[in-house]
Amino acid sequence: MQPDILYQLRFISNLGEGPQGRPLFVLTDIERSEGDKEPPRYRPRLALWDGGLRILTQGEARNPQWKGEYYYFTRKVDKANQLFRLPVNGGEAEQITWLKAGVNSYKLSPDGSRIALLSPGDREPPKADQPRSFESWPFKFEQRGLLEDTPAALWLWEQGSLRQLHQPPLEITELAWSPDGQRLYFVSSSSLPERLEGKQRVYTLDLQGRVQEWFGGEGPISGLEPTPDGGGLVYLTHAYERGLATDARLTYRPLEGEPRTLAQGNFTNSINSDCRYGTYAQTPRFGPDGLIYLVETKEGHARLRRVSLEGEVSKVHGVGESVLAFAFCGRELYTLTETATLPPRLSRPGEVLFDPNAEVPLSLGHPEPVVYRAPEGHSVPGWVLLPQGQGPHPLILYIHGGPHTAFGSAVMLAHHLFREAGFAVAYCNPRGSSSYGEAFADLGFQWGEIDQADLLGFLDTVLERFPQLDRTRVGVAGGSYGGYMTNWLTARAPERFKAAVTDRGICNWTSFFGASDIGPRFVQLQLGASVWERPELLWAKSPLSLVHNVKAPTLVVHSEQDHRCPIDQGETWYTALLHRGIPTRFFRCPEEGHELSRSGRPDRRVARLEAYLDWWKRYL
């Protein structure tokens, strides 16, 4: 199995209800031109499962929804996303919006007679060669680039006509219809200071364009879901009680009366994977039984939970697989599920219906669980993938991003490619990881301290347990937060590692503060400092301050359009290593952002994996 196995994969996503109780979804494959004259591209198509696979569109189809006589989806027309509809009974897809700036997102009304959509409208997008001015923040965002000065407006499509319903002063991030279709709920901040602090509010909007603030102002709000009787709203929120490590509260707020918390947890699927493409419904939805369903990640597994309005919580899905998305089709529950060795598949309770990669010759070994018992009393769960043969095998310690994500029941193709090439791979969930409770996830401004202790303790445990591993050939790698920790560990424990790959990492918190699309808020919540308050801490926590200690030959991987961990981080680390005389290489990817490893152009994803393997073979 080589990196180009990626070209054979198919990705299932955007699961929702279709006509006659059948699941509707997007199936994406990778299309390659004859002789590779054009770069490979993703081809997302609308599909239905009715006992067999039915492909509904041959052209691009994203973000599907169904109501009544039509399927709706978005498709690029002259580089702008436009809304289309396709008759359920057959026929050609019909374009129904022609907005120059395209459609950002849309929601069908409960009866399908109206569509609410977010769009900048007919505003001409700024030309790339013209100067830009900004008076707000963020002024750029990952995968979106430089933002427009005026947020997208809320529009209403009805009977073939489109009218602007509301122009918000700040960006709308969530949108939902009331069950009677007479009003909308949306989420936004009330002011720039609130936006800077990550606080949001919920507003109501009637079909005449009248806006009324309802509640909020404490923290982020997501997953809006009106109760079926229209008597209230459920949603996810918190007030940063433990910073970004705070678990979300599933909250019920009646139209009249006080809100109450129904459940608290690490809601949504926070497990790392590089075998997904598309979007996945995981936030609260009411089932036909009147109960609330949502996904929660617990100890490295994503489970479907069922919660009543009285706060009674029960499990829906069993052990052994993770839920990536769910939908009720008619009265029947369908899910997209994944495991550590199986990419997402369409399932219903107790039955796998469709595996898009059943014919792909994937060689995915079963990871062996390993637990490090720390002297402080906590446990660090992890896994090891062992290559075939007696060894001695070189070992790669691979660190996840976040830090508030986790490894677990989901495929990391990169790990299996390393194993196939003869490298053992060890990976774990140190403190800072999600799904083990807030106390475990909260690093308490101790980045690079307690997480380093857990990672090195886990590494020692792995080396002691598996004598076929070569202690003299240990590499370290990771992306984002994992890239930061790769830099940090090779500077703080230089004798431990023979080679390293740092991918979209961080080396300098001072420059990250201003250059990242989340910089000021992230740095304040994670490190308790800013460039004017405790700037010495930002430098002390920056791997760049210790770069003179690094000995490991290091591959630096970074994308030019990464706005989350901007490319100056990779440039600075590479330049410092080069001037220190450390063997280093800079794999620099144009036109890609922070998501290169998960949704970048396929040939660039393959080239990245090949660069990793080449580095490991050369230095491990």
From TrEMBL:
Domain Peptidase S9 prolyl oligopeptidase catalytic: residue ranges: 416-620
UniProt xrefs under InterPro entries: 6-blade_b-propeller_TolB-like, AB_hydrolase_fold, Peptidase_S9_cat, WD40
A molecular function GO annotation: serine-type endopeptidase activity
SUPFAM superfamilies named among the record's database cross-references: alpha/beta-Hydrolases, DPP6 N-terminal domain-like
BP-aspect Gene Ontology terms: proteolysis
Coiled-coil regions listed: none
Protein name: Dipeptidyl-peptidase 5
Organism, scientific name: Calidithermus roseus
